[in-house]
């Protein structure tokens, strides 16, 4: 009970006992003392705590729109007279459809009404529509059936677009043709970074917005205006400059190796995808592990008739095409694979010994690696070889430091299309997450974990239970989520 309504465990236990004493129901107790409520018969009106949490009990079959805050009796009758018989049909309406149905139903009131109506639509219906949209995008026009897509990266030889300043005839330093940092601390005073925008937004590996026809599950979230939701950009704790500005300026210098260090779920890859999206650059994310060898990066030698020929791997082909190569968890690779990249990191050329080739990458090609900090929580994240580490420009991406900034970012991500979590609840969740990041013995809730948590809430899980579930899911073997529950009670 205490997970779902604003009651302490003891208050909930007392309330159960009072119900038994009053004869509202009977309690059967097991040998361990646990109580099971049996023989329930509703008596009188529902308690206020129930109606506050779940709304008034509906006694008739007609939907009652009065549970929406702005809906009066008159507006409720007008909506039903206009043919709206379910929250689904009302949520699909436009402002123009319902504004003016009564003298008090103004456009602004109608807009708020439709937003809140969407929260009452069963999430399963929305999920079904979204799944159908994605399914339609994967239809094979010949068979009219959905199909998987397999791309042979070695055959994707198209290059990224040209710098926009060239195709538009602008000067190279024209700000219209470069990424301008205007988010986070730079929102009030945008900073040009020199990172050129390319002119082909439809290049296959450019990260897509969720509204793009070719958007997949990894598409970038969009806000109410259809614009990609920017990341919450932290300040590098040592350089004291916004991270997007720092990274963009390094990318503008050419094939300068960049290392981004940060805890899981802090948004490292989202920031890099965002920069690539804003500048129409190809984004190739490659996860490596202890078994990764040079041929996994550059490609193996394969038979072609009577001869052996090189087959390009993801890193080599991406460098030829002008992509931004992002290698995740770089330090866990074998030393041989990392050392094979040293010439690229030092001189900007790639020597593939097995292929007998010296590759000078496309001028738009870039190289970034990401890793978790080599701390106790990330015991599997090995520290980098000092010779390799010294070749990178290194930056730290911490969790978002300001609560309001993280609330704002989450609000745009999870509430952009349909309201999922109200702002006050979202703030309490973020405040608790910041507590977990300060206590080493508790499971840590990252920004990514919070988006998953909100997804659970959208699926019908109550906020407190959603927090407990995600805490359990991220807990290390030596951590006990229950240790954090008492503090959670202070927030939810």
TrEMBL record:
- Residues in domain ATPase dynein-related AAA? 260-392
Q: Which InterPro entries match?
A: ATPase_dyneun-rel_AAA, P-loop_NTPase
A Pfam family of the record is AAA_5
Gene3D superfamilies (alphabetical) = 5' to 3' exonuclease, C-terminal subdomain, P-loop containing nucleotide triphosphate hydrolases
Range of residues in the leader sequence? none
In Swiss-Prot or TrEMBL terms, this protein is called AAA family ATPase
GO MF terms listed in the record are: ATP binding; ATP hydrolysis activity
